[in-house]
Write a structure and sequence with these properties.
The chain has 174 residues and is α/β, with parallel strands linked by helices. The protein has helices at residues 2-7, 24-37, 46-55, 71-85, 109-121, 137-146, 162-170; strands at residues 13-16, 40-43, 61-63, 94-100, 125-131, 153-157. 44% of the residues lie in helices and 17% in strands. The longest helix is centred in the middle third of the chain and has 15 residues, at 71-85.
């Protein structure tokens, strides 16, 4: 990257979270090196932008908070709502929840898991699908085991293909 910056007229734009690794100290050193070679940085969040600016105060940075095209999800949601309103809605015996996000502290995956656990303990039959990956994935798997939720939680990991995410989301109620 250093030689590319010196010998090339191409601009280098970095795109990332701006934080969050298993080793934050080394992650920030790498970000500092990369930012010094880059012309611009695009962060997924304001938190990431703040971290990059703390490391490289002169960095030209922008935030793209939601980089998933939600049009397909919105279209699906409207269709599902219209379908349910056009008939008498019958309460189901089992509810299916879905979590689509990175498995990181700020996304609160353990809070979501706790809700599922409490619903089950109160006698409500639920299923929970989790789409995503992140630095807390192993810890989440362990927590699912500790709470004995292995039969109720579907872990899909990271899925980048929108149609696959929609197919899984179609099965969910929430």
């Amino acid at each position: 990257l250093f030689f590319m910056k010196i010998f090339s007229k191409k601009r280098l734009v970095l795109w990332g979270h701006g934080y969050g690794t298993h080793y934050p100290f080394f992650g920030n050193i790498l970000r500092l090196i990369l930012c010094n070679c880059a012309d611009e940085y695009i962060s997924y969040s304001k938190k990431g932008m703040e971290n990059i600016l703390r490391l490289c105060p002169d960095m030209n940075i922008s935030v793209a908070e939601n980089t998933i095209d939600l049009e397909e999800f919105i279209k699906f949601g409207k269709q599902k709502l219209k379908k349910n309103l056009s008939k008498n809605v019958v309460l189901k015996n089992k509810f299916h929840f879905i979590y689509i996000s990175r498995i990181e502290k700020e996304k609160e995956p353990f809070f979501a898991l706790e809700i599922i656990y409490k619903l089950l303990k109160s006698g409500i039959d639920v299923e929970f699908s989790i789409i995503g990956d992140g630095s807390l994935y192993k810890e989440l798997v362990e927590r699912i085991s500790v709470l004995e939720l292995n039969e109720r939680v579907n872990l899909y990991g990271a899925i980048t293909e929108t149609s696959k995410i929609i197919d899984i989301a179609k099965e969910a109620d929430f």
